[in-house]
Amino acid sequence: MNRRILCIVAALMWLGMAAVHAGEGKLEVWKAPEGVALNDNFTVKVRQPGKDWQEVSSYLVKVDKVEGTKHNALPSSMATFGFDGTVEVSVTYNKGEIHEACVRPASREIVPEVDGRTLTFTLDRPGNFSVEVNGDIFNNLHLFANPVETEVPDRNSEDVIWFGPGIHTFESGVFRIPSGKTAYVAGGAVIKGQLVIENAENVRLMGRGIVDHTVKMGIQVCNSKNVYVEGLFATQCATGGSENVTIRNVKSISYYGWGDGMNIFASRHVLFDGVFCRNSDDCTTVYGTRKGFAGASHDITMQHSVLWADVAHPIFIGIHGNTEKPEVLENLNYVDIDILDHKEMQLNYQGCMAINAGDNNLIRNVRFENIRIENFRQGQLLNLRIFYNEKYCTAPGRGIENVLFKDITYTGDRAEVSIIEGYNEERKVKNIRFKNLKINGKVISDDMPEKPKWYHTGDMARIYVGPHVENVTFEK
Asked: How far apart are alpha carbons 54 and 136 in whole angstroms?
């Protein structure tokens, strides 16, 4: 065997990866390290068309099922691989026959073929999916079909921290990534500790590895600048007191109390791109001063993502700030998002898209565009309120202004009445624009022919427009 072939073999071993090429396509599969918790409910295999099947490890994760007022952590499954081109996926349900099956988000229009205990389907581009058998949304398979890695750092560089295949632990339970470093967590690597970027600049955290599901707050970005996080799985990924942060293709599944997914505290210029959140509290939030981080948040974007709130809100903005030095939360964008579920019994914490202004916050220039909302279990489509929640706030918010809802679709029959409501004449909700809001295929507009003249347009979408609200419009 010549030297070049030996180098290639060694590189594949370092990555813990089987790579198969067929034309321009590529498939990456990583073996779970010995000793990590797995779940045998599903057997997952992938292949390129005409090639051999390769088994994908199915990890144990946990999700939160609320029954009445009790929270229950239930075992679930997660599998991850990478590809480009086309890939065929086979999922065998090891617990019994498959009577019905679906692959979500529904917007991907994937219809699996079922044969006994096995379902199969084809993917022509990456994505983050839920594979559900017999209507079970808890004992499901979270399937993360990653794009192929195009930039793997040089493990021999002094600026690279390399976590290869296997289980990694830290004596303190925390690993801090210094300025100027790239931390690479390879496929097949499992980190049993927190990965923290704190008081640092120009840091990258990358790879297809996993922060173990037992680690709370698995990834943290604190008081840092110019940070790039890409590809990993963790329970949570929070950003506080930071700027110029990109979180790309990161997957978050939490199951414990107050298990938010991707929080923003007092941060600026943050991009979430292609992320997946299934959480036991809010999936994604934007706050001002909070948790020791001081200042307003602005210029935040989440795009091309999938959200699933087993408790509380998929998207939540505005409750926390600095009452004594009022802050402005502004230029917030949510674009091309699938909301798979929303489950919240408490009426004060509902809303797939929620802006609740507290602590003298002014919230303005918010855009929700191309949001596809599936038939969630319990909650509201939207909730825009200026309110005083004494549990979390020391004052009501100052206002909510200039909010656009464009190309929003909801398909379902479980939504409770949505709310738009101000606080008083000095603390109003203003300039709320709906454009092409579609409820079960029907566009809600001010001139829709079936609306009686004495109805508010919001009544046609079960949206209550309350007092201290100005200029709410519904357009085709």
From this structure: 26
Instruction: Name 122's Cβ contacts closer than 8 Å, sequence gap at least 6.
Output: 86, 87, 88, 89
Task: Give yes or no for a contact between 364 and 400, defined as CB atoms under 8 angstroms apart.
Answer: yes
Q: Where are the alpha helices (DSSP H) in 56-191?
A: none
Q: What is the DSSP letter of 287?
A: B
- Residue pair 376/341 in contact by the 8 Å Cβ criterion: yes
Q: Does residue 369 lie in a domain region? A: yes
- Do 333 and 371 contact (CB within 8 A), yes or no? no
Tell me the two tokens of residue 54: 């390769």
The whole domain housing 283 covers 236-475
Give the separation between CA 230 and CA 2, rounded to whole angstroms.
35
Q: Which two tokens stand for residue 103?
A: 């692959």
- pTM equals 0.94
Q: Which two tokens stand for residue 83?
A: 């590809």
Note whether residue 111 is domain-resident: yes
d(CA 98, CA 116): 6
pLDDT tens digits along 315-343: 999 999 999 999 999 999 999 999 999 99
Whole-angstrom Cα distance, residue 268 to residue 241? Answer: 8
Indicate the residue among 147, 178, 212 that finishes a domain.
147
Give the gyration radius of the chain's Cα atoms.
Answer: 23
Distance (Å, whole) CA 460 – CA 72? 37
**Angle CA 234–165–163, to nearest 5:** 70
Which of 117, 147, 177 corresponds to the end of one domain?
Answer: 147
State which amino acid sits at residue 183.
Answer: A
How many structural domains are present in the chain? 2
d(CA 261, CA 247): 12
What's the average model confidence in pLDDT over 25-44? 97
H/E element, 248: strand 243-248
**pLDDT (tens digit per residue) in 15-32:** 444 444 434 689 999 999
What pLDDT sits at residue 24?
60
Distances (CA, A) of 469 to 205, 328, 384: 44, 19, 10
Q: Are 89 and 46 in contact (CB under 8 A)?
A: yes
Q: What sections of 64-103 are H helices per DSSP?
A: none
